[in-house]
Amino acid sequence: MIYYSYDRFKMDVQTLTHECSSFEADTILAIARGGMTVGHALSMSLNIRNLQSIRCESYDDVTQRNTVSILGECDFSNSKRVLIVDDIVDSGKTLYALIPILQERYPSIIFSTAAIFTKPTALIQPDVSLHEALEWIDFFWERDFLKSDSL
Q1: How many CB atoms lie within 10 A of CB 58?
Q2: What's the predicted TM-score (pTM) here?
């Protein structure tokens, strides 16, 4: 397991900003939950105010399920180019399930995907990814904000 720190995240957001800026997104869609941290940071860095989220889950805690749950709706009525972001593309099941649904619902919108980490065995690879995930990633937002029993 590796610990992914806030300092590394700040550097990676700068790199993601550079890598994703040419797509010229007008909307960011963050996949909840890990993608929300990435989505918020990118929305600030790219100056994109239209930040939305959708909940896609293929894990129960650390156990991967066979199915993906997609919960929530998006309002893309003023969108032309949507950047879908997540912290990690692990199995790829989330993007694999989500992208065809979005393309069917919004055929005139161009979608692109970005993640900080991607496993090489994922069903689908994001358009932009910074690091290959070869072991479990312990993100700072998963560790540093846990409720402490000692409080």
Answers
A1: 18
A2: 0.88
